[in-house]
Structures are given as C-alpha cells and as structure tokens.
C-alpha cells in the first residue's frame, strides 16, 4: 500500500467512526461531479473539523470565502444555532445556483446568504452595509488573493473569533513555490505569522485529499 493509499484508507476509517453515512452530503458531492466542478471541496473529516471549530467558538455569524457547491457551507451552517447566519462569497453564478439548491435540500437556506461576485469586490459591500462582526471566517478560494482575504477577515472578525484557511501547505510546495497558487499561500502564511492581532498556527494534514494543511488563527 502506497502512502497515498494509506492516507485515504485511514481517512475512510475516521469518516466511518466520526461522520458516518450522510445521504445529503453524498448528494452534494454528486451534484459537484454532475456540474463538472473540480473536486476541491473539503473532505468529510475536514468538514466535521470545521463544524467542531464553529461549535467551539460558539459561532453565531460565519463568513465563508469560496462556496463551490455548498459542501463546507452545509457543515458550517449545521453548527449554527437556529438564528445563526452564514454569508458565503462565490465568484461563479453557476456554482452559486447549485450551492443554493443544495442548501435548500439541506433545509439550511434560511441561515445562509450566498453573495455572488469576486470576493475582493463584495467584501467591501459587507462592511458598507454594516454587517456585525463575524465569529468565524473560513477562507477557501483563489490562493493568489489569500493575503488580501486575511486583511478583510481581520477587519470583519470579532476579538476572540477564528480565522481558518484551507490549502496552506499544498503538497509542501510552500517551501519552494512552483506556481502562483503556492506562492499566494506562502505569502499568506508569512503575513499570518507576522500579524500581531492574532495567535496562529499551520496544521499539516494528510487524507483522502492528499497532503495539505489548514491555518487557524485566534483574533486577539
């Protein structure tokens, strides 16, 4: 068994123990494939991890940058109380439409607002319309703009809130970036480490999604 096969097998073991079968989430994954979207959503185990982080910080308001088909949005929205709110930013209207249908199927549409457009254009709109501070921000979008998304997350997150970013290791490419995506997360990691307003760390992860990692930051 190769390392990748072992990682996937252990991931499946964890998923069986701590996630179990979930027909709704499986339908979301099928909708992603049927729509021809890239399979870049978080894994089931990572989704459960995000869910628990939201629960641990008692999130009532969550901001997500990057919706895709709504897989991570469903995990995050499930962690919210009935009167909680998730705002998810998605650049592609087709992706947003599929995510909206998935959220409706999950019975979570009333808790989630999908805002369509480039995030660096829609984030100022959230600020200008007077959105209250968020308890948690999850960044999982175009990697070249991660540092700019961090700047906005710091503006929009309350003290004691969490900022989480996916794909910050990229198969180890952050040590020697081979493309703009890897360079984008390398710049983000450096900015996060130097940011005095947070306490943060990167966590390496292996599993069905390969070798990557998440950044977790606590806003002071």
Task: Please give a structural write-up.
The chain is an alpha/beta fold and 220 residues long. It has a single domain (3-219), classed as Vaccinia Virus protein VP39 (Rossmann fold). The protein is 45% helix and 24% strand. It contains eight helices and seven strands. It has helices at residues 3-18, 23-34, 44-56, 71-78, 93-105, 119-128, 146-156, 180-194, and strands at residues 61-65, 85-90, 112-116, 134-139, 157-166, 198-207, 210-219. Strands 3-2-1-4-5-7-6 form a seven-stranded mixed β-sheet, sandwiched between helices. The longest helix is centred in the first third of the chain and has 16 residues, at 3-18. It is globular. The protein starts with a helix and ends with a strand. The mean pLDDT is 96.
The percent range for strand residues is 15-25%
Low-confidence stretches: none
Report the strand count: 7
- What's the CATH C level? Alpha Beta
Please provide the ordered H/E string of secondary-structure elements.
HHHEHEHEHEHEHEE
Known CATH architecture: 3-Layer(aba) Sandwich
Oligomer: single chain
Number of domains: 1
Task: Label the overall shape.
Answer: globular
Distance between the termini: 44 Å
Query: For the report, how would you describe the main beta sheet?
Result: 7 strands, mixed
Structural class: alpha/beta
Q: Going across the major beta sheet, what is the strand order? A: 3-2-1-4-5-7-6
Q: What is the CA-based Rg, rounded?
A: 17 Å
- Fill in the CATH topology: Rossmann fold
Q: Summarize model confidence as the mean pLDDT.
A: 96
- Given the structure, what is the number of helices? 8
Give the proportion of residues in helices: 40-55%
CATH-level-4 superfamily name: Vaccinia Virus protein VP39
